[in-house]
Amino acid sequence: MEKLSLAKELNSNAYPGRGIVIGVSEDGKKAVTAYFIMGRSSNSRNRVFVEEGEGIRTEAFDPSKLEDPSLIIYAPVRVLGNKTIVTNGDQTDTIYEGMDKQSTFEQSLRSREFEPDGPNYTPRISGVMHVEGGQFNYAMSILKSNNGNPDACNRYTFAYENPVAGEGHFIHTYMHDGNPLPSFEGEPKWVGISGDIDTFTNEVWTNLNEDNKVSLFVRFIDIETGKYETRIVNKNK
Questions:
Q1: Which whole number is the average pLDDT over 10-38?
Q2: Distance (Å, rounded) from C-alpha 89 to C-alpha 100?
Q3: CB 94 within 8 A of CB 79
Q4: How does 140-162 read in b/e, with b if 16+ C-beta sit within 10 Å?
Q5: pTM reported for the whole predicted model
């Protein structure tokens, strides 16, 4: 597999949809994650990220213009002990509740499928980061329709142990813009991760399509101590 430039992957795709990046900082000291949302409709674009506890939630920027909240208002990030959960929908809560009852990441998602937004049937993408005792590992998941057929759900989980400094993986909902939107294919992309939290945040945000980007969350977690730094960027201000 070829290691890709995250900046190039973003700036060459006008509509990857929602995306999750997880990996390790260049100096090997931080567990890194980024989650971004994009939108084509006014309802999807009418959002911001706000902090909620140790995580975040989406919120309508202008509540008077909120149409259907069902698939756009949720908590993308929640923290359960030494685990950080990042997803593109309300399956964050499903994973949190399942893992809190000692189910695995994969088992927790068994009750969920892709989003009921035909004809797109948007995949549910999820990640979990486990930082404990100076060790870091992570897993990513995608639940997608069977090549656009909503009668079948294809489930894929990818686990990464002893991840390497300056490297990570990137998964997003759509291959590119289209009608209907084509679901992500293959395993998460192997990408480079460079710079400190502000450099990395700037790299992701500036390379997302200017018209379609909505919000970005970035977190760097110290692998030794578990302490973290967070950045949130909202197009709506």
A1: 98
A2: 18
A3: no
A4: bbbbbbeeeeeeebeebeeebee
A5: 0.98
What topology is assigned to 6-234 in CATH? Answer: Glutamine Phosphoribosylpyrophosphate, subunit 1, domain 1 (3.60.20)
Residue with tokens 């989650």: 35
> Beta strands of 81-223 (E only): which ranges?
83-87, 124-132, 135-146, 149-161, 167-172, 189-192, 213-222
- Cα separations (Å) of 84 from 61, 132, 151, 166, 195? 25, 11, 31, 20, 21
Beta bridge partners of 197: none
Mean pLDDT, residues 117-121 taken together: 97
Which residue is associated with the tokens 């992500």? Answer: 184
- Residue 71 has a pLDDT of 87
Q: What is the mean pLDDT of the chain?
A: 97
Gap between the Cα atoms of 86 and 75, Å rounded: 9
Q: How far is CA 46 from CA 19, 89, 116, 129, 202, in A?
A: 18, 16, 21, 29, 22
